[in-house]
Amino acid sequence: xxxxxxxxxxxxxxxxxxxxxxxxxxxxxxxxxxxxxxxxxxxxxxxxxxxxxxxxxxxxxxxxxxxxxxxxxxxxxxxxxxxxxxxxxxxxxxxxxxxxxxxxxxxxxxxxxxxxxxxxxxxxxxxxxxxxxxxxxxxxxxxxxxxxxxxxxxxxxxxxxxxxxxxxxxxxxxxxxxxxxxxxxxxxxxxxxxxxxxxxxxxxxxxxxxxxxxxxxxxxxxxxxxxxxxxxxxxxxxxxxxxxxxxxxxxxxxxxxxxxxxxxxxxxxxxxxxxxxxxxxxxxxxxxxxxxxxxxxxxxxxxxxxxxxxxxxxxxxxxxxx
Length: 322
Hints:
Elements: H1 2-19, E1 22-27, H2 35-50, E2 55-60, H3 68-76, E3 82-86, H4 109-129, E4 132-139, E5 144-147, E6 161-164, H5 167-175, E7 179-182, H6 188-194, E8 199-202, H7 204-209, E9 218-220, E10 228-234, H8 235-239, H9 243-277, E11 281-283, H10 287-320
Helix pairs in contact: 2-9, 4-10
């Protein structure tokens, strides 16, 4: 009888837990096959295990719940409790958001990690003022340039319609006398197929995910920067959780950041190999092209430093400190 009473009590407890479980929808902008989205799903699973099912996070990839440019606002306003976004896409709100897209400032994973460490505190404070709690960040592989023909100098780019995904990529286009066109990742294949965009800068991951060899012929491995995606929570939703659930989110976020960064490192060379295997010319930029791009980068670095002001200077000083 005691065993039956104990079993009944256990069943009642689990039924109560399941009934009281909280469900969070998590919009993400990139395809389900992308490593950022896969990493987000593993993060969600870890949170579910850690909370004993009390918090369920359901990932919606590919911009299916909210488009990429809608996600941050949706989380801020509580339309979604959690989400992921490329925050440099919001550099126009605050220049500090573009710290990871300053050309040639941090061109390796090691440098990107150090820069992230220098900027994290500033971003925590900025996002807190926007009703957001920052959980974790994972970088993309180094950025390269995609074209439909051989490019030997910046002068060869004039007049090309260039897909932009943030203020930095739009500025690259302007300085190279290209025509910036704002296109989200989920819409890139259609934009290339219809001629809305004719070139872009991104990682090998984007090229592989979108099978851009169907439209592009050349990839120049400029390693210009490593942009980062961020996962953040609506502050009201965060404050509505108990301490255990918050700790589960924090610990799962730490694991997700480490795992996602490791996966990005592992996939970098593989992505470029896939581009080449599908007929693209994959190469380092020539001497003249690299010299021209370095000049573009110097201009953009000075502009970002001016726009980011004291906060930007503190990030750079911390990054360059031994």
